Amino acid sequence: MKNLIQNLPKAELHLHIEGTLEPQLMFRLAKKNSIKIPYETVDEVKKAYEFDSLQPFLDIYYAGASVLVEKRDFYDLTWAYLVKCKEENIVHAEIFFDPQTHTSRGIAFGDVVEGIVEALNDAEKKLGISSFLIMSFLRHLSEEEAIKTLKESLPYKYFIKGVGLDSSELGNPPSKFQKVFQMAKNAGYECVAHAGEEGDASYIKEALDLLHVSRIDHGVRCDEDIELMKRLRDEQIPLTMCPLSNLKLKVVDDLKNYNLKKLLDFGILVTINSDDPAYFGGYLNENYEAVAKSLNLNEDDIKTLAINSFKASFLSDEAKNRYIEDIN
Ligand code: ADE
Ligand code: ZN
User: Fold this and answer.
1) Which residues lie across from 279 on neighbouring strands?
2) What is the C-alpha to C-alpha distance for residues 10 and 308, in angstroms, rounded to an integer?
3) What is the pTM of this model?
4) 4 partner at 20 to 30 Å CA-CA among 151, 158, 294, 318?
5) Cα 239 from chain centroid?
6) Is residue 82 included in any domain, yes or no?
7) At CA 78, angle to CA 311 and CA 211, rounded to 5?
């Protein structure tokens, strides 16, 4: 099974680039940029990465991101992830970045995008990995601030495929961001949103009905509403699920009780992703391995999940079909 998972070409569709910041790089950048972080050793960092819900994780994740200052830092962060993609046979990645986490500290929007995009371009040339960039709005901030960020992004639109919605879900429902998502859609961006990670099924419905997203990030709690499950299945709206993230953030108590296989068997277009691998203890293949083991997935399930990762992507139909034929 491990070999099959390794050898299958895969796409990753739910990955926050700030969530790939490994402790070693965090220490190096903190020193270079004279940023204080509350850890001295990798062991101390790993100990701090024990979370009982989403918010304590986000607090540590935003603090970690403060070491990213120069354009070069964003390049190095992104390049390190893409090298990992090559090792794991990820041939296409759709990568989130959180501009507001950086612009709020005085970092130029352009430095963030340019650093990331230079690494993505190098990966296309040197590693044969294709990618799209998705700009996420922080939902704990106001819609006005999201609109400001959307406007800032327009000169860089050529490099950005879509917009997303992440950060503290509870109390910040999709309805708060209706206007900015309409503006993003009018500007030609694809739209996705985190929903149903901690929020209930109504957050998923709002993301579909009010934000008109084409993909749901997480979506774990869709199983509270059978009509919603049927809709996701009938309209083939993808879920980008993240097993080790959901385990680490206590969305699920044990992967043996994870609903991924149930949703897959129901006919929903489920995909496996790593979310914030530096914080959750595993990159993409480790996520596949963990669910394969806990849920007794067979080889056909694994192949279906890899095929789904391309089906659910923003690649052209031609590119999707090429990868799917390769897998078959
Ligand atoms: N930002 C980074 N990872 C996230 C997650 N799992 N949920 C919400 N916001 C995030
Ligand atoms: Zn996420």
Assistant:
1) none
2) 9
3) 0.98
4) 318
5) 11
6) yes
7) 45
